[in-house]
Structures are given as structure tokens and as C-alpha cells.
Amino acid sequence: MIKLQNENDDSEVHYTAVVCNLLELDQCRCTRYPERHALVPDCVVLTPARAGEFRWLPQTCAYRLVAEGKPLAPWHPLVSGSAETVHEAGISVLDKVVSERAVHEEDLEDMIVTWVEQ
Predict the structure, then answer these.
(1) Structure pTM?
(2) CB 94 within 8 A of CB 19
(3) What is the pLDDT of residues 41-60, one digit of tens each?
């Protein structure tokens, strides 16, 4: 999800309902996963070791949970063994987001959402 950060405040981050154009909206998966960092310069390289650098990670983020020594939720695919459980639990962005191709940069502020728990 594309995030907006106030220029005057380094700590306030706002999530938008706008996602990278590489995200396949029906499956919530990156269509170019192996090469995403080369194709999208601001695509974050996320690991449990780096999770602490990103204060904006949602409370449900697996990298954040692992870094904090907390267990993953039962709906997480690494626990459930199924990619569908995240959708069934209503945790994924399925049917909640639009591609950045459909939104002009000037309209991003209109796309801020509050349903992501930080």
C-alpha cells in the first residue's frame, strides 16, 4: 500500500487504498516478485532483522511479529498452510484497494484509509 508521510512530522504515516501496479488485485500477490526491487525503486527490502526500521508496519505484519518474538496469527499462510486463510479472515487487501494506475498522484490524499492497525 502506498503510504503518505507528513513533511513536517517524520512519525505520522497515512496508509492509502492505493497499491503498487505490480500487485495482482484478485490474488493480492506481486506479479513480478523476483524482480520487484529493480522495477520499483521504493519497494522496501523487508526482513525480520530490518522490521524495526519501519515503524509503519501493521501490527499483523509477519516480519514485525517475528522481530518482536510474537507468534503469527492462525490465519497466516505460514501457520495455516493456505494462502486463502488471510482472505477468509478479512486481513488481506482483497477488494479494499486500487492500483496506482487508476489514481492520479494529486488524488492520493483522498485515498487515505484508517483500517490498517499500526
Answers:
(1) 0.84
(2) no
(3) 889 889 989 998 988 898 88
